[in-house]
Amino acid sequence: MSDLSRPEGPKIIAVANQKGGVGKTTTSINLAAALVELGKRVLLVDLDPQGNASTGLGVENDERDYTTYELLLEDVDLDEVVQGTDIDGLFIVPATVDLSSADIELISNEKRSFLLHDALRQTAMDAFAFDYILIDCPPSLNLLTVNAMIAAHSVLVPLQSEFFALEGLSQLMLTIREVRQSGNKDLRIEGVVLTMYDRRNNLSQQVESDARSNLGDLVFQTVIPRNVRVSEAPSFAMPVLSYDTTSKGASAYRSLAKELINNNTI
Ligand code: ADP
Ligand code: MG
After folding, report:
1. How far is the CA of 222 from the centre of ligand 1 (A)?
2. What is the 8-class DSSP label of residue 62?
3. What is the DSSP pairing of strand 154-160 with strand 11-15?
4. Which domains, ranges and CATH numbers included, belong to the chain?
5. Which of 54, 65, 159, 204 is the most exposed place for a label (fewest CB within 10 A)?
6. What's the half-sphere exposure (Cβ side, CA atoms, 13 Å) at 15?
């Protein structure tokens, strides 16, 4: 384990944007892999019923007996829910479609917004000695995403470099403000990362300059380029860092991981 490990426990980051297809899952998988390359121990919590992060890391459906659903709604031992992956130092709590009913099942639960918060703070978690926990959120601002934001120290927002990209951000920021008022007053914005960026495309440049002028330092210096190797990697059940280690996508996620580690938000 690295000497930079956090004595106060893992830093928990929700990867969120209510838009689908903006790069949440891709960023969760590859940022996790890049942090592991830098010597960190990382847990990826798949909080999307689509289970794309689980598939992308090679966890087959029949290996998903214990999932985020059980972590939230049943009293299952943490050791059963946290699985190793092919990558040393990278762990996952997988998800299945079962999680799609959680939103409704949780409504009558008094602690409904705090279930993930409490689950990730069980003392059994200490033995894993994670440095980071990344939560791959569903494409919605539902109770699952609220659970992630209540559990997290910060929110990392992937922003696809396309038209209307900034439009959904005000709603996301509103949810973050509500979460601060309703149980996680210290929730930070870790940063906004531009994804699927194409330098030759004026629109990408426009989105970048709008984002930087509106959000300033909140926007990571690193931008993630549109890169076919990034989109191919999940079908080989690996992060792009393993699939094509010298690709532009892999380099970008390495650079994002370094920026994140140097980000001095708690
Ligand atoms: P979300 O989790 O927000 O729904 P995904 O991470 O699943 O988004 O990405 C949506 C699609 O875009 C996927 O098919 C993914 O492979 C592709 N994609 C994401 N990032 C890149 C990139 N940098 N270059 C090329 N394709 C990408
Ligand atoms: Mg996703």
Report:
1. 17
2. G
3. parallel
4. 11-262 (3.40.50.300)
5. 65
6. 31
1, pLDDT greater than 70 = no
E strand or H helix at 61: none
Structure confidence by residue, pLDDT tens digits, 225-259: 999 999 999 999 999 999 999 999 999 999 999 99
Measured CA to CA, the distance from residue 10 to residue 240 in angstroms comes to: 24
Token duo for residue 124: 């059994």
pLDDT 10s digits, 97-107: 999 999 889 88
| Of 170, 168, 144, 145, the residue nearest 155 (C-alpha) | 145
Return the DSSP state at 123. G
Tokens standing for 149?
Answer: 């934001």
Q: What is the mean pLDDT of residues 162-190?
A: 93
Ligand 1 site-directed mutation target among 19, 26, 135, most atoms within 8 Å of CB:
26
Is residue 168 lining ligand 1, measured as CB closer than 6 Å? no
Q: Count CB-CB contacts under 10 A for residue 72.
A: 24
> How crowded is residue 15: how many other Cβ atoms within 10 Å of its Cβ?
29
User: Which residues lie below 8 Å from residue 103, measured CB to CB, with a gap of 6+?
Assistant: 142, 143, 144
Nearest CA to ligand 1 atom 26: 231
